[in-house]
Amino acid sequence: MLVIVSLVLFYFLLPIAIIVLCQRYKTLNKVGAVVLAYVVGLTIGSIGIIPKASDSLRLYLKSKPALPASEISQLLVDGKIATADVIANSIVFAQDKLMIFVILLAIPLLLFSIDLKKWLKLAGEALFSLFLALTSLLAFIFLGFYLFHHKVEEAWKISGMLVGLYTGGTANLAAIGTALGVSANNFLLTHTYDMVIGAVFLLFLVGYAQRLFNKFLPSFSVKHAGRIESEELHQSQIFDSYVGILSKYGILEIMKGFRFASLIVAISGAISYLVPEKNQFVTMILSITTLGLLLSNWKVVNRIENTFQLGMYFIIVFSLIVSSMGDLTRMFHVEYVYLFSFVALVVIGSVVIHLFLSFLFRVDSDTTIITMTALSLSPPFVPVVAGALKNKHIIISGLTVGILGYAIGNYLGLAIAYLLEP
Prior knowledge:
Mean pLDDT: 81
Number of strands: 0
Low-confidence stretches: 227-233
Structural class: mainly alpha
Helix content: over 70%
Number of helices: 22
């Protein structure tokens, strides 16, 4: 019991330290809190600090994260597992429940700050670029599934996760993965491979993309220069700034947002009991997303400060938990080469097709780049890439695409997963 309590405290306190360090050191802030959480979690998971299930217990777990207490006790009595496996099973059970708890709260908190009406008016060409990006993504999701579904375990679930990942980032990846019951190992591998590819892709976007794309795409149109600078600056800072969140006023604000998020989770939980058991969690995820979007149009909720930051805090907690369940010694085993190929094909292929469609429909280069950034790397990278492009006017367009990606990712990802289910 003491081990589990200590682990829970670690999961909730370390992300606070990571956020503080990112705010204090620009280099760490560029790396990102989510990536740092993954690095710490993977390190802890790989060096054996947290007890892991033995091969004997894994035979009984199969795709389940943990076994019920009665079943695990019976296996111990029968001599089929060791006492250490009982502890490992309890830890994984706690980790699994904690992951579900934080991701359910994160979804509505991330959506509360959306002003859909305003952003839809400002979106313009970026919305069309979003449509082209989604078309490109889905084309290679289907192609990748066709090529690798016989070689990649849970390929249909991973397809849904990749849709979520490249529309809403870690939040939608986590929500869809949890809703579909993806194994922790496959979740971790998929996201880790994405981060490896994403790091290279980010270097390309900030270093060479604009010069290359300008050779065959229109340069940024004058019509995009009519944005309100004060609004852009506010939106560019909203994702990374935690200033004042721990002041008396800041704490009152996040508690208010937490109460609304908790209410949505409770209502969605009640709604989920109206459907068959196997569809309950999916129904809960979709209900939370829908209610979060609806409440974002209510000024009382939309104007609560720091709800996005609180949601991202829970995403960092989630990242730390799920990465600590992994093991780097198994991550790059030859048996996972097909999963890596699947992820790489989706990322590289969708970018190439998106670029071709942008050329076909004459979408400007900066809008194309910022759309790729918002979807493939997530909204926090939008100000970074916009700064590298020396174009502040695309910040609001990028954030619009990213936030809309958050909003539609769960729906689209789950729909594609169930469409591809064997």
